[in-house]
C-alpha cells in the first residue's frame, strides 16, 4: 500500500485535501494546483468556500487569478462537506492552534477537525498536520484517535507532521520554495510524506520523528521571540540613556559574523511568535523543566504595548495634555507591514489600553478597511479605517505609528500632525524629518538619570 500511494502521488493521480483555507492552507493548495493536482479545500467557513468556488481571493497578497484558473481547469474546488474527505488521497490539516486564556495550548481546532474527518477516513490515505504544536501532539493525540478507527499506522494509513513556514506578504519566499521539514510516525509514513511534499516543494527535509519536526518549528519561533525580547528590553534601556537604539542596531549589524539584527516594536503579532513559545513551556513542565528564557522573553514582549502607552502619555505631556480626552490615531492594524493579517496584532492592545485610559481611538490601515470578528477584541468589530485627509489628520492630538506600511504617506503625516510616536522608526527609514519640536520621544529620547 505504501508504494501504491507514493506512485499515485508521483503520477499526479492523487487528490489533495487541504483542511483549513486560511493564510497557510490556501497558498499550499494553490501550489498543488499549479503542479497539476486536483485539490479539494475543506473549511467550516462558507464565505471562504464560496469565494474560492467563485474564483475570488479573500487574502490580500494572494491574487484571484490562480484561484480562478484552478476552478476553470477543474482542479480546484472548496466545500464545507467533510464527507468528501473520503475522496482525498492526502489530507493536510492547516488549522489554528491558539492559546487559552491561561497561556496553555488550545488544540480544540485540531482535535475537532480530526473528529469531523475520522468517520470519512479510509485505507490508503496520508494525513499531515501542519499546525504549530508541542512535541508529541501527533503521536499522543492524533495517532490514537486514528488507530481507534481500526487503521494500522504505517501499514494501511500514514501519518506525518510538517510545520508550516508561511510568511504572509514575503515576495521572496512562498509555500513552494521554503524548505519543508517533515517527520513521519513510522519510516513508511516518512516515505509517503516525503513524496507528498516533494510534489510541490523544492526541498523536503526529512527528520527522524514527528516530535523532532514539532520541536524544530517551536525552536524557529522561540529563537525570534527571545531575540526580539532582548532588543525590546535594550530599547527601554537605551531610551533612559538618551541613545537611539535604531542607530545602535545599524552599527552592530555591520559585523559580518556572529550577529543578526532584530528590531524593537510595540509588541509581538501574528499567529506564531506570540503563541508558539508557550506551547513548549507548557510541555516542558510535564518533564519538570522551567523554560526561563522563553517565559522572560514572553513577559518583556507582552509588556511592550504598555511601554508604548506610557510613551504616548509622556509625549502628550509635552503638549500639556493627558491621554484622557485626547484623540489618538493608530496607524497600522496589521501585525506586520504591507499585509492584511491582523492576527494577534499588538495594535489591538494599544487600542484597548489607550481607550481604557480615556483616549478617543481611531485607526488607519489601507490594507484593513474594516475590523472583522476576532476572539479577543470583539469590541472593535465593525470599526472602520478613517479616511486619509489633511483635515482628519490634523484633528488628532497624537498619532502612533504601530506598523510601517509602504502605503503610508509619512511626509504628508508630518505636515499635518503635531505629535507622532513612531514605534517602528518609520520616519527615519522613509527619510522623513519631523517638524521642529515633534521628534518622537521613543526614537530620539532625552537622557534620564537618577540623582544621587
Summary, kept brief:
With 452 residues, the chain is an alpha/beta fold. It has helices at residues 2-10, 25-34, 46-53, 64-72, 108-117, 137-147, 187-198, 210-241, 245-252, 276-285, 292-317, 346-356, 390-394, 410-416, 426-429, and strands at residues 15-19, 38-42, 76-79, 90-93, 125-129, 157-161, 180-184, 204-207, 327-331, 360-364, 398-401, 420-422.
Please tell me about this protein's structure.
It is a single chain. With 452 residues, this protein is of the alpha/beta class. It folds into two domains: 2-208, Rossmann fold (3-Layer(aba) Sandwich), CATH 3.40.50; 223-429, Rossmann fold, CATH 3.40.50.720. Helix content is 38%, strand content 12%. The protein contains 15 helices and twelve strands. The strands form two sheets. An eight-stranded mixed sheet has the order 3-2-1-4-5-6-7-8, sandwiched between helices. Strands 10-9-11-12 form a four-stranded parallel sheet, covered by helices on one side. β1, α2 and β2 form a beta-alpha-beta unit. α11 (292-317) crosses α12 (346-356). The longest helix has 32 residues, at 210-241. It starts with a helix and ends in a 23-residue tail after the last helix. Mean pLDDT is 94; it is low at 439-445.
- Per the principal axes of the C-alpha atoms, what is the gross shape? globular
| Stretches with pLDDT under 50, minimum 5 residues | 439-445
Helix segment count?
15
What is the CATH-assigned architecture of the largest domain?
A: 3-Layer(aba) Sandwich
> What is the strand arrangement across the widest sheet?
3-2-1-4-5-6-7-8
Spell out the CATH superfamily of the largest domain: NAD(P)-binding Rossmann-like Domain
Strand content: 5-15%
Tell me the count of domains: 2
Helix content: 25-40%
What structural class do you assign from the helix and strand content?
Answer: alpha/beta
Span between N and C termini? Answer: 78 Å
Largest sheet: 8 strands, mixed
Amino acid at each position: 500500500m505504501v508504494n501504491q500511494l507514493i506512485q499515485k502521488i508521483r503520477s499526479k493521480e492523487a487528490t489533495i485535501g487541504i483542511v483549513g483555507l486560511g493564510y497557510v492552507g490556501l497558498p499550499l493548495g494553490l501550489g498543488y494546483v499549479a503542479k497539476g493536482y486536483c485539490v479539494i479545500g475543506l473549511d467550516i467557513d462558507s464565505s471562504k468556500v464560496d469565494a474560492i468556488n467563485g474564483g475570488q481571493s479573500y487574502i490580500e497578497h494572494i491574487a484571484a487569478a490562480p484561484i480562478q484558473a484552478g476552478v476553470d481547469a477543474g482542479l480546484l474546488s472548496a466545500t464545507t462537506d467533510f464527507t468528501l474527505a473520503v475522496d482525498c488521497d492526502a489530507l493536510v490539516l492547516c488549522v489554528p492552534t491558539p492559546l487559552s486564556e491561561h497561556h496553555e495550548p488550545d488544540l480544540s481546532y485540531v482535535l475537532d477537525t480530526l473528529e469531523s474527518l475520522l468517520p470519512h477516513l479510509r485505507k490508503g490515505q496520508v494525513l499531515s498536520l501542519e499546525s504549530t504544536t508541542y512535541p508529541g501532539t501527533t503521536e499522543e493525540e492524533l495517532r490514537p484517535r486514528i488507530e481507534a478507527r481500526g487503521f494500522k499506522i504505517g501499514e494501511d494509513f500514514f501519518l506525518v507532521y510538517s510545520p508550516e513556514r508561511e510568511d504572509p506578504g514575503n515576495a521572496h519566499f512562498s509555500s513552494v520554495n521554503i524548505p519543508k521539514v517533515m517527520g513521519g510516525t513510522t519510516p513508511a509514513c516518512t516515505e509517503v510524506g516525503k513524496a507528498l511534499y516533494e510534489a510541490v516543494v523544492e526541498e523536503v527535509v526529512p527528520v527522524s520523528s514527528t516530535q523532532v519536526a514539532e520541536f524544530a518549528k517551536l525552536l524557529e519561533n522561540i529563537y525570534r521571540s527571545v531575540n526580539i525580547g532582548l532588543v525590546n528590553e535594550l530599547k527601554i534601556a537605551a531610551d533612559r540613556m538618551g541613545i537611539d537604539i535604531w542607530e545602535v542596531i545599524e552599527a552592530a549589524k555591520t559585523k559580518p559574523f556572529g550577529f543578526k539584527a532584530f528590531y524593537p516594536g510595540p509588541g509581538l503579532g501574528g499567529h506564531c511568535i506570540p503563541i508558539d513559545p508557550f506551547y513548549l513551556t507548557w510541555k516542558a513542565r510535564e518533564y519538570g523543566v522551567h523554560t526561563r528564557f522563553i517565559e522572560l522573553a514572553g513577559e518583556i514582549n507582552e509588556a511592550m504595548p504598555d511601554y508604548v502607552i506610557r510613551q504616548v502619555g509622556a509625549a502628550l505631556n509635552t503638549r500639556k495634555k493627558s491621554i484622557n480626552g485626547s484623540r489618538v490615531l493608530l496607524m497600522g492594524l496589521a501585525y506586520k507591514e504591507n499585509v492584511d493579517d491582523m492576527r494577534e496584532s499588538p495594535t489591538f492592545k494599544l487600542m484597548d489600553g489607550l481607550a481604557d485610559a480615556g483616549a478617543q481611538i481611531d485607526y488607519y490601515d489601507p490594507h484593513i478597511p474594516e475590523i472583522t470578528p476576532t476572539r479577543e477584541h470583539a469590541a472593535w468589530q465593525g470599526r472602520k479605517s478613517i479616511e486619509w485627509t489633511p483635515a482628519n489628520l490634523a484633528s488628532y492630538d497624537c498619532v502612533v505609528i504601530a506598523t510601517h506600511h509602504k502605503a503610508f504617506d509619512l511626509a504628508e503625516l508630518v505636515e499635518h500632525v503635531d505629535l507622532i510616536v513612531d514605534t517602528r522608526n518609520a520616519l527615519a527609514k522613509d527619510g522623513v524629518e519631523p517638524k521642529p519640536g515633534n521628534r518622537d520621544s521613543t526614537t530620539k529620547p532625552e537622557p534620564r538619570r537618577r540623582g544621587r
